[in-house]
Design goal:
396 residues, alpha/beta
Length: 396
């Protein structure tokens, strides 16, 4: 089969690799029909290469059609149309039963002290081959795959793999009061969807913050009040001006470790990337520094007693945090990988019912053949050609 493989910093290729096979009785094989490139894939493209092995298959936002199931997968049949969550969870351990599927005790990568295994996301999360491919082996298929109806286009459902539940959890964790205000930093796919979900769930004021004109325009078109970082010397002051002088009730950080405006963090990441693989891995894991400009801005912009919800991926081990400000402002902080399966019951009706309240159809700015993955990664990372969300479509 063809698959998107990692070969180094800013070097992804489409190669022919062996077809996946059933390895465990709880496996399934899914023929992929659509698969997204996630903003967190760009961290692999740029920063986290020390934790990848040349030839690793990328991708964690797939959907498709079941081709084969193991003997202990009772509820799937060949021909079923499914979305595959990016987190691999068993559904029956202590933490899965408490809605924390991203911490699944069955698939936890204990060797590296991490939570549940993820598709296509480094040795830290299990080195599981990803979904930017023609076929995917799905472990824990007795629980993970989400059956969706035939008929509507893939784009109606594919974001259930990551984007929609991640944004939904970000809004849930933000604890926005009824008719309250929320500032969303970063208007990539997760930030855009978080703005829409916050408005759908009753936020009175949705503020979107970014510096890419196309992203700002898109959020504005869906009802957000937008702030261009290039036009504000202090974004916290700008947000206080429209929130009664207090700051936003809640802030969602949908950016993460590669924020703009953090030169020292960028320098540290770049220097780590120049080290030999094993040394870079140790430095990043034990002494890594994120670019924290957005997190600092979030702390400044939230009101006293407010909540910050982190959905952007962070990976630093020695990040300096302004603990005095966090403590003095009595800020609540919530974060973590999305517990996809926990939110499915609330999300499926929005995706299968009449209308399209979250605007998932048309959410992708680009749909490209799998063979165009190198170009897709490049334009997404460089924010070229208006690329804000890209779906790859295997021809299998």
């Amino acid at each position: 089969m063809k698959a998107v493989t990692w070969h180094g910093k800013r070097d992804v290729r489409v190669e022919t690799v062996p077809d996946p096979r059933i390895a465990e009785p709880t496996d399934a094989i899914v023929r992929i029909t659509s698969t997204g490139i996630c903003g967190s894939d760009l961290h692999l493209y740029e920063v986290l290469g020390a934790f990848l092995t040349e030839g690793d298959i990328l991708g964690h936002e797939p959907m498709g059609v079941v081709e084969e199931v193991g003997s202990e997968v009772p509820d799937l049949r060949p021909g079923d149309r499914v979305v595959v969550p990016f987190t691999i969870a068993c559904g029956r351990c202590y933490l899965c039963e408490r809605g924390l599927q991203s911490q699944c005790e069955t698939t936890q990568v204990t060797e590296h002290g991490k939570g549940a295994a993820l598709f296509g996301y480094t040795k830290l999360y299990g080195s599981v081959p990803g979904g930017q491919a023609e076929y995917l082996r799905v472990p824990q298929a007795q629980y993970g795959p989400i059956k969706v109806p035939d008929g509507p286009p893939d784009e109606r459902f594919v974001y259930l793999s990551d984007v929609v539940p991640t944004a939904w959890q970000a809004v849930e964790y933000a604890n926005i009061p009824a008719e309250g205000s929320v500032a969303v930093f970063g208007l990539g796919p997760i930030g855009q969807m978080a703005c829409r979900i916050a408005a759908h769930r009753g936020a009175g004021k949705v503020l979107g913050v970014d510096l890419v004109p196309e992203r700002l325009a898109r959020a504005r078109a869906h009802g957000a009040t937008v702030f261009d970082l290039r036009e504000h010397r202090n974004i916290g002051d700008a947000i206080r001006q429209v929130t009664g002088g207090r700051g936003a009730d809640a802030v969602i950080d949908a950016v993460g470790m590669e924020a703009h405006g953090a030169p020292l963090g960028k320098l540290a990441q770049d220097l780590a990337g120049l080290l030999p693989g094993p040394l870079a891995e140790k430095v990043t894991e034990r002494a890594g520094i994120d670019r924290l400009s957005v997190l600092y801005a979030a702390i400044d912009s939230v009101r006293r007693g407010g909540t910050i919800s982190l959905s952007g991926v962070y990976g630093g081990a020695i990040d300096p945090l302004p603990m005095m400000d966090l403590f003095d402002k009595q800020i609540q902080l919530r974060m973590g990988q999305a517990n996809v399966r926990h939110w499915v019951g609330e999300l499926l009706p929005l995706l299968t019912g009449d209308g399209d309240p979250l605007g998932v159809e048309g959410f992708a700015t680009h749909k490209l053949p799998l063979d165009d993955a190198p170009k897709a990664y490049e334009i997404f990372q460089k924010k070229q050609d208006g690329a804000q969300k890209i779906l790859l479509e295997p021809a299998a």
